[in-house]
Amino acid sequence: MKGWRLIVNPGLLGVRLAQLWFDVRPLSAKDELIRKLSLMHGVLVISDSYGSSLTLVLMYEGEISAKKEFELIARLSNAQSLVRVNIPFPGCAFELAHADWKIIKAIQTDPRQSYSVISRAVGMSQKTVRRRLQRMIDDRALFVIPRLNPKALEGAIIADLVVFYADPRSKTDLDTRIVSQFDEFIISTRLSDIEHGFFNLLIGNISKAKEILAWVNEQPGVGKAFIELVQDRIEVYESFNEPVEKKLTEASMSIRAR
Prior knowledge:
Elements: E1 3-8, H1 10-13, E2 16-23, H2 30-38, E3 43-49, E4 53-60, H3 63-77, E5 82-86, H4 98-107, H5 115-122, H6 126-138, E6 142-147, E7 157-165, H7 171-181, E8 186-190, E9 196-203, H8 206-217, E10 222-235, H9 241-257
Antiparallel strand pairs: 1-6, 2-4, 2-5, 3-4, 3-10, 7-9, 7-10, 8-9
Helix pairs in contact: 4-9, 5-6
């Protein structure tokens, strides 16, 4: 782990998140493509998997702009297939105030700062900072995610298992079976989408990945499943800074207009 990153509920920023899996042709162009993608507006995470596969987490404002971005990525990569899913977040009706956006900006890159440090940075009391942060967490406005460095692992591999359901009605039972079967390997899951499940695993070797995928494909209710062995992870969360800055500016202007 390299640390932690604060994520604001995308719905509060007027954006959405999608995850893409695609192959790169030819394989020799992969490193240069990663460099180009890391400069593309809206790209948050690039997972470099073993072989020709890449995974992107992308921020976008609407379907029209998203479609253009996906078409550009497909052309740059010469991908023979591109799989996309939306990353759902829970609804949040909480309206953030100017003070809340100040706190968010202060802790975006280091959410584990002490209340005293945050208090000095935003010019509020520790009690106020604690109260506002707790309310944002309770109302699902903020999330904290780990920043991972797969290259630092020795004797283990990060593997992303993606499962698409043949029938959404089989989802709950299937998710339960997968979690129960591979609980000792699971780092995190994303199970809020009715069409797919995402399981982030820590395994010992490639043979284990093959064994896991074979077991999953044998389960009733699985439409399609694949597993990616992550060898590097490039995080460019700076794209999140722009909409936060915009919200902070809007909140500041609203105060002046009163």
